[in-house]
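A quick word before the example. In earlier lectures we treated sequence and structure as two separate objects. From today on, think of them as two lines of the same record. Here is DUF4153 domain-containing protein written that way.
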Amino acid sequence: MGQNEIALEAQVSRKVMAWRLATGLVQGLLLYWLYAAVRDAAWPSTAPYLMAPLMTTLLILPVLLISSLGHLAPRQVGAWLLVALAVLLVLSLHDVWRGLNTHPLLPNSGRKEVTSPSALLVALSCVFFFIAHTLVLAGAQERKRIASYNAYFEIAWKLAIQLLFSVFFVGALFLVLFMGASLFMLVKLKFLRELLENAWFNVPVAFAALSCAMHVTDVRPAIVHGIRTLLLVLMSWILPVAVVLVTGFLCTLPFTGLTALWETRHATSVLLSTAAVLLVLTNAAFQNGEAIVALPLRVGARTAAILILPVTMVGIYALGLRVAQYGWTSDRVIAAACLLVAFSYAAGYLWAAYQYDTWLAPVALVNIYVSWLVLAVLLALFTPIADPARIGVHSQMARLANGKTAAAKFDFYYLRFEGGRYGRAALEELKRSTGPDAALLQREAASFLAMEDADRWHPPARSTAPVSVAANMTVWPAGAQLPDSFLAQKWDALKDNQKPDCLTSKDARCDAFLLDADGDGKPEVLLVDQSRMRAGQLFAQGGDGNWAGVASMAYGDVLCPPLLEKLRKGEYSLVAPPFKQLNVGGRRVAFEPSAAPVVECSTLK
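And the structure line, produced from the sequence above:
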């Protein structure tokens, strides 16, 4: 046992261990309470400005406390947690105020709305506090506002490995519990399986186990150090492969041009990911600047440090083109923030790569100061300073006002479901529009304002020209005509999950089969999307003259080309089901014959 491990064992006493386990258990119990409130649509889940801060705080603050115990003095722990709590409250209250995280408990359930912090807030708050906690622990350890890079390196990797293996420990624990439940089931004992089906057991146990794992990894620094060293060595030997691939990609661009790159519509995200991989692998080779590194890795790290800049610049250019064409959106604002951070790293690493008298030593300085920039950028994104929703809505409205976006092509969906309170305010403004396109803007704005939050998962199909339903259909049998009432119907009123895209979008095509499925002498229309992206849908005309979906065709049958070919040729017959359906309280229960022969698609000819 090394001296560092002995010192830490003495520092992290049994009392600290008890506090950590108690913190994890209380965290689990309180999170279960919030889960039960959401499940039952009860208080505090129905109080937005209470629920989101509570959930965000309970997810992050106890982990900071567990990690701080034994490493910070009690007064320092209290001060740090108060600062962290203040930041969490500001971020989560602004998240609620934006109006993007309130939703029905169940779609179309008619129950109360519940509130939770947005997934993006939780994810980026974890990044924010990982960086901030590393800075705090390193500063407290060396009693400096800006600690040495070695202290940051040691603590950051220790925390990362602690969290990684703690999550692994929790997963392994539950695998063993489920194994035990299966064993007891062999002798007809159901108590453990029933226990594992209850959130009141799972949630507290999971977080208590997480705190236990964090403590065990904390008092065994030699093990963590060994795992870290092995991980960094393995990652560093991936660096030459990444350098060769990225260099090859950049060398092909002068010959292939950038057009194909932009046509993917996700070039910026891929380029950002590439820059992040180069950054991580370069640091894996550099470590704390004192490691002995083989010559191929030194060359690879220096080359990677240079490559990050051109990759980032191509990403900036790609984002600039999208913004120039379509304006800012929330995703593009976040991408711009990521590119700002990436450019800061890239410029700093390029400078470090050309300091030939040292082994990338300036990388340490760049990492420290860019980490502060990351904290500032994240705070700006989740406060009104640079709220992506606000910037996106204002950009889209400005493009509409100056004629860069035609009213017929304007994205009302973005305002309603991704613009938060800013988007809804913009839609209210459009309801009072005047001018040549006022009727269209007012109608669409009113329509989207009337939508429920659950409708965000079924965005309306957008088209750039009037849709001709007849032009989108290939009618079978050949030469047949769709009913005039079917072609004349206004399909926009029907929800998108109840109709194929060919009814509302000029870019979609369907096969339309005319058949009398119910035997009433009137034809029904079976629509099968030619892209084979969804099940077939059968439409029938009601007594009011309107057409609506009445049944569906199994997706497996849609994916069977011989079956569809026989339908086109009219080689089919309509048969009654062998068993009638049950009507139980208005719910239809159909019987599937257990002895019916199954005809595989491959056998159809």
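Notice the following. Residues 1-8, 104-111 have pLDDT under 50 and may be disordered. We will return to this example when we discuss secondary structure assignment.
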